[in-house]
Amino acid sequence: MADKASRALVLYGDGLARFVDSSNTHIHSLASVASCSFLSLPHAPPETEHERIVREFSHLLDASEAYTIASGLKSKGSEHEISTLSQRFMGLKAALVTDSSSLTSFGKLIGLDVLQLSEICQKSDSFPSDATSTELLSLLGFEGGKCLDVSLLYDLVFVHIGVDNVGMIESLVGSIMKMAQPGSVIASRLHLSVVLSYGSVTDKDASVFPVKTPQEGINHAFAGLVPRQSYTMRGEKPRDDIRDYCPMLVAQWQDAVTRRDLVDTLSFKTLKKLSGNLVIPTDRFIHEVAFKLWKAPKYGA
C-alpha cells in the first residue's frame, strides 16, 4: 500500500481485446510488470451496439442500477435513486474522456465530468503522442514530473477508446510508461489500468474464450461439493447471470504497489494460464481502483 493516495488513469479499449497482437509491444510490456485478471460480465439482453457500450461501461463503474433507470427498464420517477460516484466513493472526483454521445449522457447522469477525446487530441496537435498523454496526466495533477495536490484536479480519469483504435492505446501506454519511470513521483502515485473488452459476442465465442475450465477427473457424484468460485457470488447469493466466456482483460500497474504475476502478454490465453487474480466480477473493478485512491475499503483478499 502506498503512503499517499494514488491518482488513477483507466484506458478502456471497448471491443479491442480481439485485435491486440504481437506487434503491440507496449501493451504487452505493461502486462509483464502488472497485475492481470479477467473481469466477468453478465449475459447480455437483446440490445443495440450503443446500448451495449453503455451497459458494459455501467458495470465497470458498478452503476448497472443507474443504467436500468436511464434505459427505461425501471419506472419513471426513479431518477432520484441514482447515486453519483462522488456520493458512493467518499467525494471521488472523476472524469470520463470519450467521443461517444451515448456514454456522454450516461457519464453525466452518474456525476462524471465528461471531456471530448477529440478535443484533447487537438490540443496535442496529433494523436497518439506524448503530448496527449501529458494532457491526460495533467488532469490528474501530474505536471513537470510532480504530483500537484490541488483540489480542482481529478482522482480518476477514465478514457473510453472505441473499436479500430488499438494503436491509440498502444501509443498511450508507451508514452505514459516512459513518463512514469520506476522511482519517479509519477510512478509512485499513478495507478494505471488497461481494460480490453470483446464488444459484441456470439455463441461461437463461448468455445473460443471460455473462462471455466472443465472439471476433468472429478467424480460426477461429488461435483456438487465443489465450491463455487468467488466471482460467481455476490455476498452469500449466487450470481446466476454470469457469462462464462469473453471476459474483459485487465492489467493494473503502480510502481512498488501492485503485485506482479507471471503474465507476459495481455491475451486471453496467457491470462487464463498465468494471471495472478484470475476472475473478478466487472462491477468490483471500480471498488479495487477506489481503494488505491483511499476512497473505498479493500475488496477481496
UniProtKB/TrEMBL annotation:
It comes from the Eukaryota. PANTHER family: OS02G0135600 PROTEIN (PTHR35506:SF1). This is AT5G11810-like protein. It comes from Eruca vesicaria subsp. sativa (Garden rocket).
